[in-house]
Amino acid sequence: ILLSSVACATEESALKEKYEQAGFNAQAFPFLSASVDKELVDFAYHGLKNANSSNVEQVFVITFNNIDDAKAYYDAHENDKDKPNMIRQGRAVVYGSSEAVDLY
To answer: Which of 12, 16, 35, 59 pairs as cysteine with 100 (C-beta 3.0–4.6 A)?
Structure first.
């Protein structure tokens, strides 16, 4: 279990660094408005770019504890208008601006 925790922390750090280098700033993840149960999540990331402009970009990355929860979330929300450009890769579900999702 220790190894998986370290691996997840490394993955999360690399993800944050990738988005920071692209100009995104980490924000508190809005579990309630994202309709995500914290208990099902390994880690979550919310990044914001150009916050004070008319060209705001956001990204939401949710890595679930298991693939079944990721699939269930994706299936339930893939057509939500407030969750654009949604993709799922393994345990991760990503949505937001197209540039931000492409970065993932």
So the answer is: 59
Consecutive H or E run containing 98:
helix 98-103
Q: Is the pTM of this model over 0.70?
A: yes
- Structure confidence at residue 3 (pLDDT): 42
Whether 24 and 47 have beta carbons less than 8 Å apart is answered as yes
Separation of alpha carbons 35 and 18, rounded Å: 25
Q: For residues 52 and 85, what is the distance between their CA atoms, to the nearest angstrom?
A: 22
62, with CB counted inside 10 A (0-12, 13-18, 19+), is: buried
Position 103 confidence tier, pLDDT thresholds 50, 70, 90: very high
Please give the share of the chain, as a percent, with pLDDT higher than 90.
82
